[in-house]
Structure formats: C-alpha cells, structure tokens
Amino acid sequence: MSKKRILTGDRPTGRLHLGHYVGTLENRVRLQDEYECFFIIADFHVLTTRTENLREIGENVRQLVLDYLSVGIDPQKSTVYLQSLVPEVTELCLLFSMLISVPRLQRVPTLKDVMRDLKLETASSGLLIYPVLQAADILMVRSHLVPVGKDQASHVEVTREIARRFNTLYSPVFSEPEAMIGRVPTLMGTDGKKMGKSLGNAVFLSDDAETVSRKIAGMFTDPTKIRLTDAGHPRTCPVYSYHRAFNKRSGAGSEIRRTCMAGERGCVQCKKELAIVINEFLDPIRERRATYEKRPELVNEIVLSGSRRARSEAQQTLQLAKEAMGLTYFRGEG
Ligand code: TRP
C-alpha cells in the first residue's frame, strides 16, 4: 500500500524560529519516513498582504529552504517545492472558490488577526481567499495530514469543508485532511508575549551562539521574583517554558520548577543554563545550514526538482477534479 501523504509549509516572509520548530518542524522531520511528504514554500500567499518590495521574497525563499534543510528535512525523502512553480494551484483555487461562501471566509479568525496586526481597513479579495488557496495547496497533492502551528487550524478546517463539498457535489476525489498541532502549541516570545518573526522577540534557528546567549540573557522572567531567594512562579515564566520545551536532561523540568519555587535558584543561573541547552540544540542545525549555504546550486536544484515533482502531482489532481466536475469537454486535453 502506498504511504499516506503530508503537505505543509510556510510563507517566505523571514527566518524560522524556535516556535516553528516545536510547533511544526519537528513533526515534519519525524514523519518523513512514515509519510510521503510535500513541503511548500508559499510565495503566492505572501502577496495577500504585500504588494510592494516583492523582489525581497526571493531571498526569503532561499533562507526558508535553508531553514528546512538545516532542521533535517531530507530532500532524498521529501519534496520541497515553490508554490509559484506549480501554477495549477491557482486553477484549483479558482474552482474551489465557488464552493465556499464569502461570509464563511470572513469568519476565519486569522483574517481578523491579520487585519488588526497590519492595521488594514479592508481585506483584498486575495486576502479573503487565502484559506482557499491553502486548501488548493493541501488538496492538490491529496494530502491526509497537515502538521502546522495552532494558528493554522482554522485553514485546515476550511480545507476539510471544501473537500467535503467537492466530494458530495461531484465525486469523492479528495480525502479530508487532518491538522496535526505540535507538542508545544504556542511557545511564547522572549518577552513573554506572542512570538513573531518580526516582533524582535524570537530566537531564530539561524542565530549564532552569541546572539542566542544575548537574547536569552535579556528574556523576561517572573516579575515578582526579584532576589534569588524569592519564590518564583515557573508556570508563567518564559524561561521556564523554554526549559520545558528544549531541556532534554532527565528530571530537569521538575528540578528547575522545585528549586525556583523554593527560592533556591536565581533567574540568571536559569538563563545561563537555558542558553547552553538552546545552543546545544541548535549546533547540529547550524552545521547543516553551513554545509548547504556553501552549495547554492544544490539548493537551487532541490527546489527545482521538487517543484517538477509537485507539479506532475498537481496536473494529475487537477485533471481528476475537472473530470469529476464534468469540465473536460474534449478528448485528449489535460
Ligand atoms: N498559511 C501558512 C502559514 O502562514 C502557509 C501555508 C500555505 C501552508 N499553504 C499551506 C501551510 C498549506 C500548510 C499547508 O504558515
């Protein structure tokens, strides 16, 4: 029996950080053998909120591929591809856009979030159909599982609705894919607030050791713990949450929690230990990144061949969809 499929990916808008790692990247790496994986670099999706300075996207694409390869996404096993090199996705998106209502899309929570964050008064029609394009990405390779951060769950829900609607209206071409959320659904930023690529509160996978140590030394901790001997509240402390997510030493979490609450450990020590943990975690990632950085032509070829592979899949799916809909009017087309 052939393997089930995964499709997931990211917009090329900047470097990936530790939150992406625990939210989705580690699932992707872990599931590469069990599933046939497609990882999309969704450059069309960037256009939903950006109409200028588009030339910068290219460099972001390159950095994103390096992020993928550096965490251990293996191009021998998985397909890494660029959305715009698979133009069939736009055709499927158009067909899908007929199967979902405008009010339904207006209720997708990420739309309001993006409009608030970017201070947009109105959404372009492209931004409104963002989840429809994402559904086309996912269903284009007839994916079963979508490992994503928690914020993307509502888009996978739209995808399921579109698949269901298509299947009942025409014929069962698509399976209803499931979202898979990571083991740490929301890692907070170094300031204890929501982590963001461009909020100055993220530790990036490509940060060097010194940058990591500096960022961690500046992290927020429990504000009520002023002296080492004060009883701390690990439950609300960003530094503790990072220890929980990344400190693999057995018993470390409970020991840190106990000594913090008992006033037996200070925040400075806690941060120093965390910096060591994170840097040890990032070292192999940095090494792989450096290897690929030296071979830009290889990185190029990985994306081009991945995109050819994804495109052939896309052409087949599109043909199936059109046949199911009765849109194939001439023999020999497609
Ligand atoms: N919307 C996703 C994000 O911002 C990126 C994305 C585009 C995606 N197409 C996808 C994720 C398909 C999963 C599946 O992170």
How do you describe this structure in short?
The protein has helices at 18-30, 43-46, 56-71, 88-97, 102-106, 109-117, 125-128, 130-140, 153-169, 209-217, 238-246, 252-261, 267-293, 296-325, and strands at residues 5-10, 36-41, 79-82, 145-148, 178-181.
Feature tags:
single chain; 334 residues; mainly alpha; Rossmann fold; Tyrosyl-Transfer RNA Synthetase; 3-stranded parallel sheet; two-stranded parallel ribbon; 7% strand; elongated; binds tryptophan
Textual characterization of the structure:
- This protein has 334 residues and is mainly alpha-helical.
- It folds into 2 domains: 5-187 and 296-325, 3-Layer(aba) Sandwich (Rossmann fold), CATH 3.40.50; 209-290, Tyrosyl-Transfer RNA Synthetase (Orthogonal Bundle), CATH 1.10.240.10.
- Helix content is 52%, strand content 7%.
- The chain has helices spanning 18-30, 43-46, 56-71, 88-97, 102-106, 109-117, 125-128, 130-140, 153-169, 209-217, 238-246, 252-261, 267-293, 296-325, and strands at residues 5-10, 36-41, 79-82, 145-148, 178-181.
- The strands form 2 sheets. A 3-stranded parallel beta sheet has the order 1-2-3. Strands 4-5 form a two-stranded parallel sheet.
- Strand 1, helix 1 and strand 2 form a beta-alpha-beta unit.
- Helix 8 crosses helix 9 (153-169), helix 10 packs antiparallel against helix 13 (267-293) and helix 11 crosses helix 13 (267-293).
- The longest helix is centred in the last third of the chain and has 30 residues, at 296-325.
- The radius of gyration is 22 Å and the shape is elongated.
- The protein starts with a strand and ends in a 9-residue tail after the last helix.
- The structure holds tryptophan.
- Tryptophan binds at residues 7-11, 40, 42, 45, 134, 137-138, 146, 148, 152, 155.
